[in-house]
């Protein structure tokens, strides 16, 4: 069994939460794949550089300047920090983007009404590379950047990358997909941390979005969780402290 773990920007930005989840990663019985976000780091870096940012439904519009920002933030600051902290915990690991070893290839998003810029939708995952690493006891830390095969980097939603990697790997090994963030699951009331929804059926997601219970950055998380669940992958949305347990929200 292999865990595919996605950690979001709020976790990356919090030393307490990041230490918590990395401790739990280090306690897992086998090598894992960790996909990280880093949106808050990218947003702060963009602000420091005076580069305006636009978000649509939790997804970052990526012009040429923003692509440079997210490359620095995701592939540099965040990825190497996570790798270094895992190594300090005795986890043999390697940091990669989707461009490295042709890990994740994508195409530039063609939206009918919105120009997302250099945003990529995943076409293929190189599972051979991932299997080679895992088989040799090396965990893989993936930054949410892909490439188009023609020399262009693309910014790709980390939730999407985690789900697509899980789907691709599931044909070869049993996968547990975990979306890890700052709450103990999906909440009925964002102001009530105890209002965790134990199970969300895929058929109920559209209604929850319309009702506003699922909104903003949770939308891509849930929609990608549903995609994986429909492929019969075990998917949970959990707090950092719950990795390795059956706590949190199960997506069916």
What would you note in describing this structure?
Helix 6 runs parallel beside helix 8 (218-230). It contains eight helices and 14 strands. It has a single domain (2-251), classed as Acetylglutamate kinase-like (Carbamate kinase, 3-Layer(aba) Sandwich), CATH 3.40.1160.10. It is globular and about 40 Å long. The mean pLDDT is 94. It has an eight-stranded mixed sheet, with helices on both faces. Strands 3-4 form a two-stranded antiparallel sheet. A two-stranded antiparallel ribbon has the order 6-7. It has 252 residues and is of the alpha/beta class.
Radius of gyration: 17 Å
Largest sheet, order of strands side by side? 5-8-2-1-11-13-14-12
User: Mind telling me which CATH architecture this is?
Assistant: 3-Layer(aba) Sandwich
CATH topology annotation: Carbamate kinase
| Tally of individual domains | 1
Provide the CATH superfamily: Acetylglutamate kinase-like
Runs in which pLDDT lies below 50 for 5 or more consecutive residues are none
List the helices and strands and how they pair.
Elements (H helix, E strand, L loop, with lengths): L1 E6 L1 H4 L2 H12 L6 E4 L2 H11 L4 E3 L2 E3 L2 H25 L4 E4 L7 E5 L11 E6 L1 H9 L3 E4 L2 E3 L5 E3 L2 H13 L4 E7 L17 E2 L4 H6 L7 H13 L3 E6 L9 E3 L1
Parallel strand pairs: 1-2, 1-11, 2-8, 5-8, 11-13, 12-14
Antiparallel strand pairs: 3-4, 6-7, 9-10, 13-14
Helix pairs in contact: 3-4, 6-8
Descriptive keywords:
about 250 residues, alpha/beta, Carbamate kinase, 8-stranded mixed beta sheet, two-stranded antiparallel sheet, 14 strands
């Amino acid at each position: 069994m292999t865990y595919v773990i996605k950690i979001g920007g709020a976790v990356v930005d919090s030393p307490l939460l990041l230490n918590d989840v990395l401790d739990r990663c280090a306690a897992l019985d086998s090598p894992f794949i960790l996909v990280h976000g880093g949106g808050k780091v990218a947003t702060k870096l963009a602000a420091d550089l005076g580069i305006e940012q636009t978000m649509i439904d939790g997804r970052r519009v990526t012009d040429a300047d923003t692509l440079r920002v997210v490359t620095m933030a995701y592939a540099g600051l965040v990825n190497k920090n996570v790798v270094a902290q895992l190594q300090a915990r005795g986890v043999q690991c390697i940091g990669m983007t989707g461009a490295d070893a042709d890990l994740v290839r994508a195409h530039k998003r063609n939206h009918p009404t919105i120009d997302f810029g250099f945003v990529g939708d995943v076409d293929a995952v190189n599972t051979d590379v991932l299997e080679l690493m895992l088989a040799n006891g090396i965990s893989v830390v993936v930054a949410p950047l892909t490439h188009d095969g023609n020399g262009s980097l693309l910014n790709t939603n980390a939730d999407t990358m985690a789900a697509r990697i899980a789907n691709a790997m599931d044909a070869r090994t049993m996968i547990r997909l975990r979306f890890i963030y700052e709450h103990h699951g999906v909440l009925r009331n964002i102001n009530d941390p105890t209002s965790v929804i134990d199970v969300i059926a895929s058929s109920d997601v559209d209604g929850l979005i319309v009702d506003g219970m699922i909104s903003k950055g949770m939308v891509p998380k849930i929609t990608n969780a549903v995609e994986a669940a429909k492929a019969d992958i075990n998917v949970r949305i959990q707090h950092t402290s719950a990795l390795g347990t059956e706590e949190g929200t199960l997506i069916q």
